[in-house]
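Worked example

This section walks through a single chain of length 408. The input is the sequence exactly as stored; nothing has been trimmed or padded.
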Amino acid sequence: MSNITSVFRSQLPSVFVAAGHGGTHWVNAAIYILLPYITLDLGLSYTQAGLVMTAFHFSTFAANAFSGPLVDLRGNGKYSRFQAYSLLIGGIAMLLMSISSSIYMLFLSVALIGVCISLWHPAALTYLSLQYPGNRGFVLSVHSIGASIGDALSPLLAAFLLTYVTINGTNLTWNTTSALLSIPLFVTMLIILLFLKDKEKPNDSTKKSKDDNYFSNLKLLLKNIQLIPLFLVAGVRTVTQNGVLVFMPLYMVANQGVSAAVIGSSLFSMQMGGLVSGPIAGYMSDKHGRKIIAVGALFVSAILVPLYTLVDNGIVLILLSGIIGFAIYAGRPVVQGWALDLAPAETSGSVISLLFMVQVGSAALFALIAGIIADKYGLDIIFIILSVVCLITLAIASLMPSAKPTQK
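Given that input, the structure is written out below as tokens.
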């Protein structure tokens, strides 16, 4: 019994961090369920809807440029504080979204959500890397479980509020729903501040020596050519993930007339698939290497994503989304662990920032281009494009040298 208690206590910080990660993905997922209704209410075109997502991804990209170095250089002993700041910004963003009456207010709110996400990952992943250096793949999969729970519950709750909750006989609007979805962010922020204890990085005797050592390692990091194909894999995985999250609800609402309840259930199912696959993928990558898991996830995604255009039944849509989520999200902890394997410990925050910059940059570009293509050729073709991109990247990834993860 004492051993079980000891294991539970040792893993408790990772659970709190996973909860915070769930908070950042809670606001992220809220965009996808609310966007179809915002688009209809404000009379936006698909190109404008794509621009909203481009603004989100661009802000995430820009914020990543400074969040990683900020955490590496000034975060030592303050990682939990940066995580709390992240959640605070996310809560404020949802409140701003709730009062948006134009696309410009939407730009501001989604930009703040991008900052929330960008600030979270370098601080949280560095915190976990320091706390659990011997089993990064597994603990990062626990971190990804938090993301999957946030991604799953946020659209499910939003769908419930939009469909079944009424005031004076009228269903809740997306504005009120957005405001209510901000509450868990503030609660989770308090939990992080009260219960997380930071561990400092070793060899941090003086600020000057720390800065010099950081920039020296950063130069080595930027010269590491192994990161180039890895970042490509990461970018395409994120493009596929966000492409489905943005355009599947738009397609199903606009083309099939699917209800908010079914859309919310489909997004929930997708995240539950990711919740199951994350720990399995993280554990298997610790044992057998990252490459085989990443390639397998791309292959299954390429095969299944185009099937959305053939679905005309709510139950089938929910089941298909669960299987696709299992494949897409399996790659998330694997790619993150792979990047940390290749990076010096002193630049762990920066390599995560670089990784996310590539991911969100790819997603931002795709959202803009896909919106234009959808206006001209219809939403169906987007799912075919996602499949082709996955297959091309799979071919490139299969040529990468295979190596088991290193322990640092």
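What to look for: The chain has 14 helices and two strands.
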